[in-house]
Structure formats: structure tokens, C-alpha cells
Amino acid sequence: MQRLFIGIKITCPESIINLQEQLQHLLQRSTIKWVDPDNFHLTMKFLGEVESHIITPIIQILEHLTPKFNQFVLKSDGLGTFGKSNNPHIIWYGFKENPILSSIQATIEKTLYQLGFESDDKKFSPHLTLGRIKFLVERKELAMFLQEQDHIPDHYKIQNFQLVESILKKEGPVYKTIKSFQLNNNN
Q1: How far is 86 from 93, CA to CA, in rounded Å?
Q2: What's the CA gap between 124 and 103, in Å, rounded?
Q3: Sign of torsion, CA 170 22 164 1?
Q4: Whole-angstrom Cα distance, residue 108 to residue 183?
Q5: What is the spatial distance between Cα 104 and Cα 92, in angstroms, rounded to a whole number?
Q6: Where are the domains of the chain?
Q7: 9: closest CA among 187, 176, 184, 186?
């Protein structure tokens, strides 16, 4: 069994890394597991534990649907949190909705359902996880920081997505790309 997801590797500019470092400094009394910037990715579909004989059909499905989609640009949509406002559990860097990304994600969701993967009932929210909060001390400081960061003008050219194995280790996950899927360059 391999723990898999389908996602987009995001190579972040210094601006996001700087935001994460500012948050680390601001929230240093809190217990937060910060994501290594080398591991930043946008998850389109978490597959979970997958038996090895299912991997080839997944790859074939993704290879079949990839030519239907063009490369696109993601635009940043600032910082935010998941969870209750007084008790967040994830700090994220979000992206504005993009019709191509939404279509790719919905197609993956629908197609893999036919292979027996559960559909995700939550609305797709494209983001990078910056940190996972275990215990938050500086609630007010975090809320103020998030309000101050309402416009981050970064954008990212997305040319491909990947089927990735997530290997959980004590020091943090290691991501190994099983296969990358190139989007059309018809822009």
C-alpha cells in the first residue's frame, strides 16, 4: 500500500517563504508544525492508502484526461485559516478560483470515483498549507496578521500536475513523484 495524492508542486517565491517566517516569529509560543517550503503543493485529490495494482489504472486515467486541459495561471488570494476562527487548525496561502483548475479537479474527482475512490463532499479550496496548528497561544496576533495581508500579488504558471506518494516519517513527510502529467501549451 502506498499513501497517494494528486497535486501541483508549487515552487514558491521568497514572498511566501517570508510570510511563513513572519508567522513563525509571530507565533513562536504556539505549537505549530510548519510545512517545509520544498514540500509546498496544492492537493487536488487525496487518495489515501492505495494498493499497488490500482496505481497503473490511476496513471492511465490521468494520462487520458490530461490532453483535455491547457496550462493556466494561478493568482494568489492571500492568507487564511481552516477551522473555527477562535480555534484554527491550518494556516494556508490561498489561490483565486480558476476555471481550468476547477475543471481538472472536478474531472479527477468524478473519474476516480469510478475506480472506487470516495468523492470529497467539501468545496474545493485551492491552497498551500503553511502550518498545522496543534496549540495556538497568539490568537489575536494571528487574526491581525491575516487581516493585514489582504493583497499578495503573486501568480504562478501551472504546466503540469503529479501523482505523488507521501511517505510519512518522524521528521515530516517525504513526497516522491510517481508520474508527472503535462498540460497543453495552447495559450
Answers
A1: 19
A2: 11
A3: positive
A4: 14
A5: 21
A6: 2-182
A7: 176
Q: What is the mean pLDDT of the chain?
A: 91
Q: Which three cell numbers stand for residue 64?
A: 487520458
C-alpha cell at 115: 475506480
Where helices occur in the chain by DSSP H, the ranges are 14-26, 52-65, 99-113, 139-148
Q: Which of 66, 93, 21, 87 is nearest to 183 (CA)?
A: 66
What percentage of the chain has pLDDT greater than the value 90? 73
Residue type, 72: F
Q: How many other C-beta atoms can be found within 10 angstroms of the C-beta atom of residue 179?
A: 13
Average pLDDT over residues 137-161: 86
Q: pLDDT tens, 41-89?
A: 999 999 999 999 999 999 999 999 999 999 999 998 889 999 988 889 9
Chain mean position to CA 117: 19
Q: What is the CATH number of domain 2-182?
A: 3.90.1140.10
Please tell me the pTM assigned to this model: 0.90
State whether residue 181 is helix, strand or coil.
strand
Give the span between the Cα atoms of 184 and 187, in whole angstroms.
8
DSSP state of 173: -
How far apart (Å, rounded) are the C-alpha atoms in residues 179 and 182?
10
Percent of the chain at pLDDT > 70 equals 97
